[in-house]
Structures are given as structure tokens and as C-alpha cells.
# Entry
Amino acid sequence: MDSSEHGPAMSSTGVASGWNPPPGLTEEEAEEMQVELIKVEDEIETLRQVLVAKERHAAELKRRLGIGPLSEIKQNLTKGWHEVQCSNAYMRTSQTLGDLNRRVTSSNLYLTASSTLEEIGRSDAYKRTQETLSQAGQMTSAAFSSMGSAIRNQFGEMRNSPSFKTFEDKVENMKYKVMGQTNEESDRSPTSNNAP
# Structure
């Protein structure tokens, strides 16, 4: 890297011409620091180039191994979740929630409420209500089933009634008048019986 990339023109010692050292530094100290800065910046640039080369190499190895972006994301998420679970904040939060859960479940209010709900579940009133609702559900189901059967039977009886047969014949006659009929159909149609 040449010294022209570092800003103003440098002297042979690396210090910019017309440049005054900051207060508290001698010119020699400033020159030494300037030379060291140039070396560090050169090293940084070299490291960047090495990093880019290593990233390319890693990408090529992943490609050859068949490791795609999706599996890489999955792996990163798994690793991230593991790191979260191992973090102090997560562990403290988990412990705090566990302590809170223990305190709530061992509190008098929780135990009283839990006990009360158990007593309600064992009470005769609850059992009678449960049985009544169960019977009501069974009766409702049976009623719907019976109603469906009754409707089906009623339609069956209605279909076999003379008035429905007459209505069916009229609809069929209307169909033949509107759509016309072929020779075979005319022999079977109800209107052929009415023909002179």
C-alpha cells in the first residue's frame, strides 16, 4: 500500500508535511505513531483479503458438501436457540418463572380454588347436572333422528299418493311439450295415451 492512500503527502518518516503533532506528543512520538498506524492499516487490509478468500473457500466447501442456504439457516437457528437457552438471562427467567409457578400452586388461594373445584366435581348437584345434560343431548339426538325418519317416510308416502302421481304426470307432459320427443319416447309418453 503506498503512502499516498493515507491522506496528505508524507515525509520520508511518514509524517504529513506541514503537520504539527497534537499537544503532549513530541514530533518523534507522532512520527512513530504515524508509522505504526500505516502498518496496522496495512495489516487490516491484508486480514480483509484473507477473510474474503476464506469465505469463498468455505462457500465452495459448503457447495461441494451439498449444504444449502436452507440447511445453513436451520443450523444457525438451532445454534442460536441453544445459545439463548444457555444464556444467563434465559436461565434466570426460567428459574424465576419456575419459582413463581411453585409459589402460585402452593398458595392458599390456588389450593382453596383447586379444592373447591374438586368438591364441585364430586358434588351431587354437579353429577345430576352432568347426567341431565347428557340425557338431554341423547334425547335431542334421538329426536332429530326420529324427525329425519318421519320426514323421509312422509316424502315416501307422498310420492306414492295419487295427487303426487297426477302432478308428476303433468310435469312430464310439460317436459315433452317444451323439449319435444323422439319416436321411441312418444310410444312411452303419457301423452300418447291421450292421443285420438
Remarks:
- Residues 1-7, 192-196 have pLDDT under 50 and may be disordered.
- The first helix runs from residue 27 to 65.
